[in-house]
Each structure stands twice: as C-alpha cells, then as structure tokens.
C-alpha cells in the first residue's frame, strides 16, 4: 500500500470522497477545485502528464483484525496538484508527506511549492530537497476561518451590495489580476476563465459606492454544504473605508442563501488588518497552514 495517483478527477473523488467530505471546511480547496474541474470537459487520464492536474490518496497498509484476518486500510491522506501552483495536501502524517515527495519527483512533476499543515509541509519540503536539491522558503502562513454568527459591519459603509454580472467582466478580470499579483500567487493565470466560471454561478459580490464598484468578494459553489469566500479585493485608492468588510459580509450572506451550512475563508497571517476584520464579521479560527515555495539551491561560492 502507499500512494495511488491519477489524472482523472472522477476516479479521485470516487476513492477519496468520504475522506474529504468528513471535514469539508478543512478540505475546502480540494473539494471546490475538483468540483470545478469535474464540470470542465477533459480527457480522463489514469497517468497524468506533467502539464495536467494530478491527484492521489494515501493508504498506509492493511489493518490486522486477527492473526489470520486483515482488511484494507482506509484513505489517510490526499493531494491535488494543478500545474504552476503548490501541491495541496490534506491532513496526513509526516511519513505520508515524505513519501509523496518521492512519488512526485519520480513522476517528473514540476512542483513550485507545497500548501499543507505545518508538519506535513516541512516533511514534504525536506524530502523534496533531498531528492532535487531545491531549497524551501516560507511564501506565507495562512489561517482557515469558519463562520460562527455573521455580524455585518455596523454602521455599514456608504453604498450597497449587488451580485456581479456580465457587464462587470472586464473590471473583475483586472481586479483578479491585481489581487493575484498583490498576494504573490503565480503569474500567467487565466483570470478571464476564472471570472467567467464565477459569474456562471453568481459567485462574485460587488460593493458599489457612489454608483461605481468599490470592492469585490468571490464565493465558491456550495460543495458538501460548504462555500468559501475568496479574492476579497479593494483598489488601493478606495481602501480604509470599510468596503471590503461589507463585500465579504454580503458574499457570506449570499453563500448561506445558496445553501451553505458552513462558510469559510483563508487569511494571510502576516496581514493583521484582514485577520481582525474577519473575526469582527463572525469568523472563528480553525487551523493554520504553511505555504512553502521551492527554488534551485544557490551555488556554493568558489
């Protein structure tokens, strides 16, 4: 037993569905991304190419019931890797994370980093460095928050919330690119496709002030009764007026009205302003994650 990998998202979900759905808040990224990929026409690949998404699950080995009887182990970890992005790990043991690094190196995957709970991220990075020579540096530390009771800003800032529509598309693409650059995510992403997907399920809320868009907050589709707020962005010239908090509260309310029993979001722990804001809105911490970036080791001086 050990790691099993596939390029077919349906096969991955068939094997890992119960494991992922047991903790939908903690597994929100994998659940929401695979849901989006599942909706896109793409050939099923039992062996994913290096330029295709890859998925996998960890089964540590059969479990002995008696001296003469064993049963297969259940899934005890899973991963998702979309090219150009860090590999995303669920909760798993250090041994599983280390073994995964070896599997991905052997498969020739180009992995720019890892996103996992701190111990698993460090174990993966150590094994990756041992096999590739690449060093790891902290890209950012994130905290997962889950909504308790929504407390919209009071008083609310000037303006009103509305759901984004096709007429906002160009602006949303521009804001999405700016948001990505600001948080240091990989460049070259297809923001147009991402915006179109969000618009297709009414997944972007705009806070409008003085008859013009002032801030946005995106929401994923509801998967396993869970939705995630993401891409909260206000142009620099409009910050400090409460627009981001109002947009986030409106997006959160929209997610609950769409059927979400749980609404979650991630924050950058280096940004105390956003961490405090989301807690004022009623979000409560769940877990911390570590995102490491890989780079070729610097050559030794002569």
Can you lay out the helices and strands and say which pair or pack?
Layout: E1 2-6, H1 9-21, H2 28-39, E2 54-59, E3 63-66, E4 69-71, E5 78-81, E6 87-89, H3 94-106, E7 113-116, H4 118-132, E8 134-147, E9 160-163, H5 169-183, H6 191-200, E10 204-209, E11 212-219, E12 226-233, H7 243-257, E13 262-268, H8 272-280, E14 283-296
Instruction: Give the CA-based shape.
Output: globular
CATH class type of the largest domain = Alpha Beta
Head-to-tail CA distance between termini: 45 Å
The major pleated sheet works out as: 12 strands, mixed
**Topology pattern, helix = H, strand = E:** EHHEEEEEHEHEEHHEEEHEHE
State the helix count. Answer: 8
Q: How many strands? A: 14
Count of individual domains = 2
CATH fold call of the largest domain: Aminopeptidase
The neighbouring-strand order within the major sheet is 1-2-5-6-7-14-8-13-12-11-10-9
Strand content: 25-35%
Residue-averaged pLDDT, rounded? 91
Helix content: 25-40%
Q: Just name the CATH architecture of the largest domain.
A: 3-Layer(aba) Sandwich
As a whole number of angstroms, the C-alpha radius of gyration is 20 Å
Structural category is: alpha+beta
Low-confidence segments: none
The named CATH superfamily of the largest domain = Gcn5-related N-acetyltransferase (GNAT)
């Amino acid at each position: 037993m050990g790691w099993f990998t596939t390029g077919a998202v349906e096969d991955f979900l068939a094997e890992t569905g119960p494991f992922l759905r047991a903790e939908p808040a903690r597994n929100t990224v994998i659940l929401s991304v695979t849901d989006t990929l599942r909706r896109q026409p793409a050939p099923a690949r039992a062996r994913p190419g290096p330029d295709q998404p890859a998925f996998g699950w960890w089964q540590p080995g059969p479990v002995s019931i008696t001296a003469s009887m064993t049963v297969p182990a259940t899934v005890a970890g899973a991963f998702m890797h979309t090219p150009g992005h860090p590999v995303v790990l669920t909760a798993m043991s250090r041994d599983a994370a280390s073994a995964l690094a070896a599997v991905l190196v052997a498969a020739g995957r180009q992995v720019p980093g890892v996103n996992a709970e701190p111990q698993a991220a460090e174990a993966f990075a150590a094994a990756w460095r041992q096999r590739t020579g690449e060093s790891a540096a902290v890209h950012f530390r994130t905290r997962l928050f889950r909504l308790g009771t929504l407390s919209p800003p009071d008083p609310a800032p000037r303006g009103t919330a509305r759901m984004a529509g096709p007429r906002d598309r160009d602006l949303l693409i521009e804001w999405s690119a700016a948001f990505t650059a600001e948080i240091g995510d990989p460049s070259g992403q297809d923001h147009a496709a991402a915006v179109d997907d969000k618009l297709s399920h009414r997944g972007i809320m705009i806070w409008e002030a003085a008859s013009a868009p002032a801030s946005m907050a995106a929401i994923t589709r509801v998967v396993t009764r869970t939705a995630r707020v993401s891409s909260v962005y206000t142009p620099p010239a409009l910050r400090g007026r409460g627009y981001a908090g109002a947009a986030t509260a409106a997006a959160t309310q929209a997610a609950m009205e769409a059927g979400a029993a749980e609404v979650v979001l991630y924050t950058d722990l280096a940004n105390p302003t956003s961490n405090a804001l989301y807690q004022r809105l009623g979000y409560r911490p769940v877990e911390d994650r570590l995102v490491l970036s890989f780079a070729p080791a610097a050559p030794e001086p002569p």
